[in-house]
Amino acid sequence: MRRALLGRINFPGLAVIAAAIMLWEIYTRTAGSHFDSLASSGAIFAAIKTLFLDGPLADQLWHTTSIALVGWVIASALGFCIGLAIGLSRTAWTYSMASLDVLRSIPSISFVPVAVMWFGFSVTTELLIVVYVSLWPPLLATLHSVNSAPAGLLDTARVFHLSKLSTLVNIVLPAALPSILVSLRLSLALSIALAVVAEMIGNPEGLGFGMVFAQQAMQPARAFAYLVVIGTLGWGVNAIFLLASRWLTRGYESAP
Amino acid sequence: MNPAQAATDVRSSGPPKGDAKVDLAFRCRGLSIDVGDEQRRIIAGLDLEVPRRQFLCVLGESGVGKTTLLRVFGGLTPAAAGSQLELNGQPITGLPVGAVFVFQNYAASLLPWRTVRRNVELGLEATVAAAERRTRALGALDLVGLAERANDHPWQLSGGMQQRVQIARALAVEPNLLLMDEPFGALDAMTRETLQVELRRIQREAGATVIFITHDVDEAVFLADRLIVLKGEPATIGLDVVSDLPVERDQVRTKELPAYLKLRHMIYDVVRRSGNP
Fold it and tell me: Across all residues in chain A, what is the average pLDDT?
């Protein structure tokens, strides 16, 4: 088991990252040392440690992570249900597709000031932004994939007299699963990104706020520290989701 | 035989009509089929009676309407008004219970996320309890020789095996009528020959009635108890002949019999004849 795990670690990739960190350290201490706005690798790690142990980083990390995840779960459920309803009903499709096309073309970030106007600088604003933006990938993916179940499988359902519900549960949804999982992975990344953005502009809490605060206090090491933490959060959550999604599609020929 | 006479030569060798004692699995009367936006008539006034346990092969050139005809038999495509279809003595409206279709594209009709056994159980899920479902599925897999692969996924099997899984799935529901649309068309020659022998064995053991579509004359002559050739636009039965080949057939010896060659020749005469009847 240990050998299998060891075999899965990407040693070349890790080596490149370690080398980059060291090169950055060398650069900031030599040629880049006159820049006030840069911080060396060592300084960044020290800042992370200080912020975590003595500072607000732990709380902020918890805040951003929980808002992003809660928002993502709500958005996924909502997006899936709406997508399913529109995908399965010809009437719903006819009446809603034009509006959907318009809405999703509006860049999501431009809704942030609007949300701040409505709900002020609060957690509600942040959650609303996360949900609104993360809604779209699962909604569109569900809508389209539910409508494009492979014809051969639908014929098979008819041949064996499967009820409409049975066809949906046994054929349409499993066929749609890979596509929906990809959209969920995308919306997860969006959730974290938009939570951070909302914190920068709309809600003075969490990692986004921490980063802006460090920037305004002219502390580059701390600002970079937040950047590293945000990046690690995104990577970690994505990795966990990938594992879960591979397990869910373990029967399929190719994982998403 | 002059061409005009031969083309309309329906030497019906099925049971005499009106004989109530003969057990018919399937019958159609005056069957017509229109397709496309312009509702072009591709099949006109077809009469057919298929006795139980008969292995019937339907031949014809590409595009004559064999697949559409089979889809109509299976209820996947509607027939034109005035057509009468009966399965087991009951008129067919919509999708008949008791007829199962086997598709040429096995990969597109097996569920890749289910194991082989659960794929075979698909048709039983609405009506049969779990334990009995499992027994019947394993029984059907045994019949096609795939019992040990029950827990694999379809994509782990070769093409020939996947097609056998589809056949097992059809047999698991114990159908009155098995409708097979060029099921071996996507397979290589050796697999095809093996499966042809297997299919005859399976059909005899299961006592199934089969309507088998193919454009391959040799395949049809090897498999069939009775052969029909569709011909013309709109298509009608150009030839209907009962095979006089022995019940036990072999890919090498049977194909050397004079009866085999004669039957083959007869069919090619009808199929190759150009022009409409």
Answer: 89
Please tell me the distance from the alpha carbon of residue A175 to that of residue A181, in angstroms, as a whole number: 11
3-class SS letters over B99-127 = EEEECCCHHHHCCCCCCHHHHHHHHHCCC
- Helix-, strand-, coil-residue percentages of chain A, each rounded to 5: 80, 0, 20
Read off the pLDDT of each residue in A223-247 and give the average, rounded to a whole number.
93
Q: Chain A neighbours among B 55-94 (CB < 8 Å)? A: 74-76
**Domain parsing of chain B, residue ranges:** 22-93+212-277
Among the partner-chain residues B97, B105, B114, the one whose CB lies closest to the CB of A161 is B97
Residue B23: both structure tokens together: 């057990």
Per-residue pLDDT reduced to its tens digit, A182-192 = 999 999 999 99
pLDDT at residue B14, as a whole number = 44
pLDDT score of B93 more than 80: no
Tell me the two tokens of residue A91: 């009437």
Residues 102-161 on B with a CB inside 8 Å of A are 103, 105, 107-109, 111-115, 122-123, 125-126, 153, 155
Three-state secondary-structure class, residue B25 = strand
- pLDDT for residue B274: 54
Instruction: Give the domain extent around A150.
Output: 57-248
Structural domains of chain A, count:
1
Quick one: CATH architecture of B22-93+212-277?
3-Layer(aba) Sandwich (3.40)
Percent of all residues in chain A with a pLDDT value above 90, rounded to a whole number: 54
- Write the pLDDT tens digit of every residue in B2-57: 444 444 434 444 444 444 445 778 888 888 888 888 888 888 888 999 999 999 99
pLDDT of A110 above 90:
no
- Residue B187 DSSP class: S
| Nearest C-alpha in B relative to A167 | B122
With contact defined as beta carbons under 8 Å apart, do B159 and B106 qualify? yes
Residue of chain A with shortest Cα separation from B122: A160
CB B99 within 8 A of CB B28: no
Å between A134 CA and nearest CA of chain B = 28
Using the Cα atoms of residue A120, residue A124, residue A127 and residue A129 in order, give the sign of their dihedral: negative
Residue reference for tokens 């974290």? A192
- CATH, residue A83: 1.10.3720.10
A26-43: pLDDT as tens digits: 888 888 778 878 888 888
Residue B146 makes CB contacts below 8 A (sequence gap 6+) with: B116, B157, B161, B164, B165, B168
